[in-house]
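Re: your question about SMP-30/Gluconolactonase/LRE-like region domain-containing protein

S., sorry for the slow reply, the queue was backed up all week. Below is exactly what I fed in.
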Amino acid sequence: MQHWSVDKPWLDLGCGLAEGPFYEKETNSVRFVDIKRKRVHSVPLEGTESSVQTWQLDVCPTVTADIEGVDPRQRILIGIKYGLAAFDRNTGSYEMLARFNDPDDERLRSNDGAADPHGHFWVGSMTDFGHGEFQPEGSLYRFRKGSKEEVVQGLTIPNSIGWAPDNKTMYYTHSKTREIYALDYNISSGAVSNQRLFYQHPTSGEPDGFRIDVDGNMWTAIYGESRVLRINPEGQITGEISLPTRNISCVQFAGTQLVITSGADEAGEGQSKRYGGNLFKVDVGKAGLELFKFRM
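Result:
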């Protein structure tokens, strides 16, 4: 069991809900979103608060990804409330590519997602903020060639999606039930099957965003518990990162550094409230798998 401790934030930004960190190799920078404040951010890996670039949107962004064959300094994919969009970083505007629900249906929004080895994009939907208690009305969708497929239904908070190093296993998180699932992923067809429980979190915190390292270990944020866990391919906890605020939301590898996002802790006290919504980073001595690119 390894342990790391982070005492201070890397970026003291006070986001409402920082999420979806993505390492951009071309610029050695990290992109992330603030879902509650409807912002997309980018910052050099060795940057400070003064070097953060911010785009204000009119709708909540939830995740970003690179687009195959497109310079990410120009355009990227973003998940927004109603589905997927291409975001122009020069103008700050976006163009809808695909929807998973009616734009008049304000109850649902997208959440976390990722491109798969075939370049298709997987994204979850869930009850949006301001519509009461989260309900099991969300789904896990796969977008490909302009069409959508509802792969898993009846989810409350579907979260991060990722693949093992050999691409034969796909994982996704169901935060509200504190479960992470594994599915067999067919490398040739992209089909998934044999869904099974990979990890059940035993305490009250909720597994949130994760990334996979080159050895197949999963590093998952635990929302509400001030920590990130390293879980080996057998589903056993083998490492822990302690952080100074409770609502840890997601992680992203940038070389051997792990960038960690968090949400505001408005109900908290002291240090947890002070540092909620900030970004952290720590060198864990291990690199992560590169994230796949979306194919238009």
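Helices lie at 270-275. The chain has a mean pLDDT of 96.

Happy to talk it through on Thursday.
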